Amino acid sequence: MHEMSIALSIVEAVEERARQEGAGWISEVELLVGKLAGIEPESLQFCFSAAAAGTLAARARLAIEEPEGVGECGECGTTFPVNFYYAECPACRSLRVKILTGEEFLIQSMTIEEEEE
Ligand SMILES: [Zn+2]
């Protein structure tokens, strides 16, 4: 499953970082997952719980922010919401559309706790 390998790499990344910082455990991980990133947030939540079991992130809350897709027309410069990669400018019908936001996928921040419990 696509989301499982993503979840595993997130857990690996935050755990490595937490170890470097000498953290006891990770209480929260914040992700930015654009609506056009091709990642299913519910599925990622589920996979994250499984992937994090037995790691420093085992009790971490996963917060996912989902920026809407926004495109800009390469002909007339209009910006408009985009739901799919195949987008058409609502003003001039051009298909030369540049995606401005919505493709993000990154770990925005994490919260670490010093105390071992
Ligand atoms: Zn246009």
Question: Please, could you describe this protein's structure?
Answer:
- This protein is α+β, with helices and mostly antiparallel strands and 117 residues long.
- The chain has two domains: 1-67 and 102-117, hypothetical protein PF0899 fold; 69-100.
- Helix content is 26%, strand content 30%.
- It contains two helices and six strands.
- The chain has helices spanning 2-20, 41-52; strands at residues 25-33, 61-65, 70-73, 79-81, 97-101, 105-113.
- Strands 2-1-6 form a three-stranded mixed sheet. Strands 4-3-5 form a three-stranded antiparallel sheet, with no helix packed on it.
- β3 and β4 form a beta hairpin.
- The protein is elongated.
- The relative contact order is 0.26.
- The model has no long low-confidence stretch (mean pLDDT 94).
- Zinc ion binds next to loops.
Care to give the gist of this entry?
The chain is of the alpha+beta class and 117 residues long. Helices cover 26% and strands 30% of the residues. The protein folds into two domains: 1-67 and 102-117, hypothetical protein PF0899 fold (2-Layer Sandwich); 69-100.
Please estimate the helix content: 25-40%
> How far apart, in Å, are the first and last alpha carbons?
32 Å
Strands ordered across the widest β-sheet: 2-1-6
Rg calc: 18 Å
Structural class: alpha+beta
CATH architectural label of the largest domain: 2-Layer Sandwich
Number of helices: 2
What is the number of domains?
2
